[in-house]
Amino acid sequence: MFQVVLALLFSAATLQLTVNAGAQQKAAFVRLDRVTASRALANGVEIRSGAAVMQITALRDDVVRVRVGPAGQLPEDASWAVLPSSRTAANVTQESNGSVAGFKTAKLHVAVHKDPFGLAITDNAGHVIAQDLPGRPIEYHGSSFRVYMKSPSEEHYFGLGDKPGPLDRRNMAFTDWNTDAFGWQQSTDPIYKSIPWFITFNKGICAGIYFDNTWRASFDFNKEYRDGYSFGSEAGPLDFYVLYGPEPKTVVESWAWLVGTTPMPPMWGLGYQQSRYSYYPEAEVRRIGDRLRSERIPADVIWLDIDYQYKNWPFTVDPEKFPHFEQMIKDLRAEHLRTVVITDLHIADQPLAKYKPFEEGIAGDHFLKKPDGTIYEGVVWPGRAVFPDFTRKASREWWGTLYADFVKQGVAGFWNDMNEPAIFLVPSKTMPDDTQHRIDEPGFAPRVANHLEIHNVYGMQNSRGTFEGLLKLEPNVRPFVMTRASFAGGHRYAVTWTGDNSATWDHLRQTTPQLLNLGLSGFAMAGADVGGFAGSPQPELLTRWLEVAAFHPIDRDHTAVGTQPQEPWENGTAEDVSLRRRYIEERYRLMPYLYTTAEEMSRTGLPLMRPLFLEFPHGEADGGPLDLSTGNAFMVGSDLLVAQSPYPDQVDDYEVALPPSSWYDYWTGSRIDPTSGRKGIDNAAIAQPEVHIHRTLETLPVFVRAGSIVPVQPLVQSTEEEPEGPLTLRVYPPTTFGAACEGSLYLDDGVSYDFKKGDYLRMQFTCRLSPQGLIVTVAPRHGSFAPWWKLLSIEVYGATKPYGAANITALDHSVGTPVSTSFDAEHHRVTALVADDAKGMQLQLAY
């Protein structure tokens, strides 16, 4: 019967493709143990090992793709993650002989040893980028397979998204299967997202591997073999990419080239956001908005969880709890507070209730089905529910239209939760393996796939439908979509968070490595439920979490139903409230720097929140990366280093090993005088100079790299409020003559795509230290966007006394005009206030 249905749905050619794919999945034991034939390709080489075929091709000089078909036919060349524009071909030179088949590009050498079979990819200097583990060739056992790679003892591994555990994945193993993991702990796996991408780092040589397979997959880093790592899947294509650095930034940028960058977010998405499960009724939402403003807690967003809905039916509003929903949205906007609402994908199965999403979904044949052709039903928050088939382009487009009413009412953003997909009352926590997805998508052959293949991309395609639908409704407004589940490349459509964490010190500590690995995996716009979702935090825990979250890409306080109030003014002393307010305020002062870094992210893929090794790839004495033990120090952009305690709940002082550079204290402006020569607890020498941190509740240690110029603004209560006063340029001079010193600023209207038409502002700043003094240069502006400031306050830090003289010179003049300066001994700074005429200038400070 199933074959009859397929024949009716698809052409004979499509049916034959499905049959062929099934034949490959049913292949018996296959081992690629020797090369039986090979032939050159225009951009690579094709290998035969018995019935199996392998193609190795170069997309660029530094990107190689490997595909295998166990039964002589390669899998379908289609991807939910890889951009069509990245399917390029590089010129190669063949390097084959009697014992080796291979080729070279301008940067890499690819060699397949014929007997025994062995793949090796090296760079021009002979560094091994990826190499088969000797004695462990690729093997198929039915439809499942595994790839084993050699793992040098000094190699480290990062990525895979927000898997719990340390920053470094070495000596760990993971499964990719999107899972509703309420109350997950550090040892829990899998959780919400599947991002089969990881970065290798060996003595300063960095590469990345992307395993393009949507089925249940697993990764093993030195658990099975201490000198090897491996990856594989229970079914689907063996298709992986190797991206060469050698610098880690190059690898991250190449990953963005392959699967896309995080789009430019609206500026308000960088603001502080207040949420809980749930704010209701309407009076409570208004109370929270009023309290944020009366407490002078800067904020941009209030989130509404499922209780604003009628009986938990998505795309509804409960008229009793929210009798004036649209007016409430407008009133909050008048206070510069936007609203983000949850819209889960489980559509209530209500055929007699005139429920629009259900009726339209039935009429358009948009819901998933069982093998017998009937609609699949599962129990979630509304009770019985049905589920859109997001692998159909037409169904995603229909899903996008469901947001029209909310958008018209002024709702600013949307939250796609429960999209693993989560199903209640079943042991698997998700829908049955044989649930049918009807793939009808450009770039794919039309066919029916079971849930085992689509499960890991289901949430990604859900958020894609939301994002693309919002763009159709408001083409010149940047969508804000948050998703819980996703797949590689899903950052093109949504921001994310680490799911249902807990109000514990361990989860505060866990947040940093999770967000860092998410950023390395593409999800540069990510956060955690500040304060913890499950349970109520101790006052100090909430305070410390709000402090460090002020430097995270997304800063959202969220907690579960039944927990104690967790807003910044709750659960603590007056001192706690003051500290929480102070750090949120600092985030808003830093908004020009954060927004500029976000714009860089949207172009390059470099995350806002970065592991230290991304900026200092050769920081260790042996040339290896930094911060591999706890991962609780991180960079914000290229210039700020946040050094939370490795164990935030401990009362002990601690040491911060600073990367090889000169540094300033962000809070005091003084230059750091690190010590060196100290030994660790294991009596091993500490490679980096260190700073002793006296642990207090008041201060989260933050440092600024010497040679940085950081733009900041006057305090505002929301990103929509125009700052009053000058733009401040915080200049942290280098400590040696001739050393680099620079900074930049990017600005636009914060909400639209007008920047693509030139309506933006871009500024570059430099400074130069000489025996005579310091020269700060502000280059002419680029772009047509008019800024809010007329004056620049140039603050030079590290000063121990006033400068002797100060002059301002226009870039097209040689004669300077004297300008007055002030000296602040407490903050070690000299300040000059100058007009900004958009044409550029130089400030000359003489000793």
Q: Can you characterise this structure?
A:
This protein has 847 residues and is an alpha+beta fold. Among the domains are: 27-259, Immunoglobulin-like (Sandwich); 709-846, Golgi alpha-mannosidase II (Immunoglobulin-like), CATH 2.60.40.1180. 19% of the residues lie in helices and 29% in strands. It is built from 14 helices and 53 strands. It has a nine-stranded parallel beta sheet. It has an eight-stranded antiparallel beta sheet with strand order 2-3-4-5-20-17-16-13. It has a six-stranded antiparallel beta sheet with strand order 1-11-12-19-18-14, with no helix packed on it. A hairpin with a 2-residue loop joins strand 4 (52-60) and strand 5 (63-69). Helix 7 (393-401) crosses helix 9. The chain is globular. The model is unreliable at 1-26 and 676-686 (pLDDT under 50). Belongs to the glycosyl hydrolase 31 family. Residues 54-220 form the Glycoside hydrolase family 31 N-terminal domain. This is Glycoside hydrolase family 31 protein. GO terms for molecular function: carbohydrate binding; hydrolase activity, hydrolyzing O-glycosyl compounds.
